[in-house]
Amino acid sequence: MAIEFPTYNGVEVASLPPPGYEVDFDNRKQQKWLEHILIFCFMAPIALMALLQRFYTKIFLSKGLQIDDFFMLLGWLTAILTQVLMLTSISKRLFCSHSFEMPLADYESYALYSYVTAPIYMMCNGFTKLSLLLFYLQISPQTWFRRAVWVSIAVVSLSSLIIVCFMYFGCSPPQKAFRLKTEGHCVNAGIFYIATAVSNIVTDVILFVLPIPMVYALRMPRIQKFGAMMVFGIGSITIGTSVVRLALLPVVLKSPDPSWDGCPADVWTFVEANLFIICGSMPTLRKFFKHLMPRLMGSSGQSSGYRNPASPGPSNTLQSGGNVISRLRHKRKSYAQFASDGEENELQDFRGGDTTKKQRSVTVTTADQSQVPGDNHSDEGAILQTKSFTLQYN
Fold this sequence. Notes:
Protein name: Rhodopsin domain-containing protein
Subcellular location: Membrane
Keywords: Membrane, Transmembrane, Transmembrane helix
Main location: membrane
Pfam family, one: Fung_rhodopsin
Structural class: mainly alpha
């Protein structure tokens, strides 16, 4: 039996307009279309610059690109694709227009854009979260931390895969989702979408909370701990956007006019998609600006809590040696400070032939800033000093 749809002024439509509403099929009303364009024009370039900064830092200032960068690239591509598809639909007066003010063929085009775009956006969500979690694996060898990260990776991967598959195959046959006259049925997705929105918020909170104990336990000045926590804290902005979208979701799911009522939530989709990339690229910002503006950011020795190398006395060597000894004493009991660019610690194990005591040779190399005539701030006047000593312990 063929599925029938109502007609209005001789035009077949998905639904009838409310009484008293004057329908204009040729000049449909739209809301918040300008907001979508402005957010894309403002935030998309920032997201691109953040991504390029991340790649530059990884390639030229670090160990090169790794798997977390690959997932962030996939996240950026899906974020751009999501926004381009939605803007294309807006330009055709589909998104952000009244459902009852579209001919049925146009409404089916709107449904097709929704069918394609929503899963791509969920892929963006999953790729960027996986990128951040894979980055977490590189910052601490602690067993509990790595196990928690791997569990989070499994949760994000499975939930993203389930949601994407549900969006593509929630109707039987799948084309029923955008070909309204096709016979078949679709699962009522309301409760499922609410549950997935809540799970997204939970995983966002996990991503924010997970590194805090590890950062707090680092042996570094409080100001650096605060700065590191701020990097992860800024990433938690996406929690707020997820909450806003969750608050708007029930209205959309119950609406007989989803193309219109879903428009405010779509605005936050644009914001969130770009924030995924911007926040996900922030961990490399300090190294990037330290390379770009070394005097403003300070030397690595200063940022690591060492005294000014230009100051007299052997404090550099003693403090460096103290850090190494502390690492030997507390190995596996506390977190080691992140390696600094201006210091090099080499540990070499050896055992004497007949001695009953264990020995470890420690070489500490520090940079002593000698004053260069004519340039009190020159980094080229640094003199490397190497101190070697042997630790004996039972």
